[in-house]
Write a structure and sequence with these properties.
Layout lengths: L1 E8 L6 E6 L9 E2 L9 E6 L8 E6 L7 E4 L21 E6 L8 E6 L5 E5 L7 E6 L9 E6 L8 E6 L6 E5 L10 E2 L9 E6 L8 E6 L6 E6 L6 E6 L9 E6 L8 E6 L6 E5 L10 E3 L9 E8 L1
Antiparallel strand pairs: 1-2, 1-23, 2-3, 4-5, 5-6, 7-8, 8-9, 9-10, 11-12, 12-13, 13-14, 15-16, 16-17, 17-18, 19-20, 20-21, 21-22
């Protein structure tokens, strides 16, 4: 299997999903996740939801239109099961994540309301669309939106659900069991009065066998990026700007061990208003071995969403 970076455009651009080698070279022509006329953006995740040994690409539609989740093979073949997790009338967009929460060898799919609410639903990928968990990350009355990631932050062998405050929200991070039980460690990744929101991802950035949490300012702010250990001290491994000072596009983020050294890299895509640039960093912020490329035309200021998967 080959490690590949998967991109989805931000808002105001067609829903063209593309794949790249870990060195930033296009590996396919990509595919359109939704109707070509849809301009709400595409949130992307990767995980082996059907247990066939290779990852699938999970896409969530951005704000505007009926918010839904689809699953594709890397070649663009649409799988049969799709989700309207918050009903066909919900148009706030959805964020997506995938990981195995119960050790059965198949990734579950976590979906959050990207705007207009912060409900999170964790599904099994089956015809019944079995619900593992259904909860609010920050309270049912708040319409702030949420981002979602999955990873084993407490080293119990199963993935937890990591949530970040969405656009217009404070940069709060909360962690839950898949069934929605909140974990004791929660924190603000940036100044608690910030209202840029945060994107989140999970990976072992320092090679100690325990997953860490990365957060980026999501929208309308400089792309500050911080990697935290999941401990009572909230130890910071690295902190840096992913794009130049003064660029207030925010950023989208993923963690994955691209080079096989046992330490996850941080993969960052510019937020809306920035060009569709993807950059990689060590979890300390080091640019050693860094890759940088534009996933779409550089003049397009839609930003870019990123994930990483393992594909044949």
């Amino acid at each position: 299997l080959a490690t590949q970076i998967v991109t989805g455009p931000g808002s105001k651009s067609g829903p063209h999903v593309r794949t790249f080698t870990k060195n930033g070279k296009p590996s396919s022509g990509g595919f359109f996740a939704f109707a070509k006329t849809f301009k709400g953006g595409v949130r992307v995740a990767a995980g082996d939801v059907d247990g066939d040994g290779t990852d699938e690409i999970i896409v969530g539609s951005g704000p505007g239109g009926r918010s839904n989740v689809r699953v594709f093979e890397k070649n663009g073949n649409l799988k049969s099961i799709r989700y309207y997790p918050f009903g066909k009338s919900f148009t706030g967009g959805v964020d997506v994540a995938a990981a195995d929460t119960d050790g059965d060898g198949k990734a579950e799919i976590a979906v959050s309301q990207f705007t207009k609410g912060n409900q999170v639903i964790v599904y099994k990928y089956n015809d019944a669309k079995t619900v593992v968990g259904n909860f609010y990350a920050f309270g049912a009355k708040k319409k702030i939106g949420a981002t979602v990631a999955m990873g084993d932050v407490d080293s119990d062998g199963d993935a937890e659900i990591v949530t970040g405050g969405g656009i217009g929200a404070g940069p709060q991070i909360r962690v839950f069991d898949p069934n929605g039980k909140v974990k004791p460690i929660q924190f603000f990744a940036f100044h608690k009065l910030s209202r840029s929101g945060v994107d989140v991802s999970v990976g072992d950035g320092d090679g100690d066998g325990k997953a860490d949490i990365v957060a980026t300012q999501l929208r309308g702010a400089e792309a500050w990026t911080k990697v935290y250990k999941y401990n009572d001290e909230k130890t910071v491994i690295g902190e840096w700007r992913s794009f130049p000072a003064g660029v207030e596009s925010g950023a989208n983020v993923e963690m994955f061990d691209l080079d096989g050294d046992g330490k996850a890299e941080v993969i960052v895509g510019a937020g809306p208003g920035g060009g569709p640039q993807v950059r990689t960093f060590k979890a300390t912020g080091s640019l050693s071995g860094s890759v940088s490329f534009f996933a779409y035309y550089a003049r397009v200021r839609s930003g870019v969403n990123v994930t990483v998967g393992r594909f044949e």
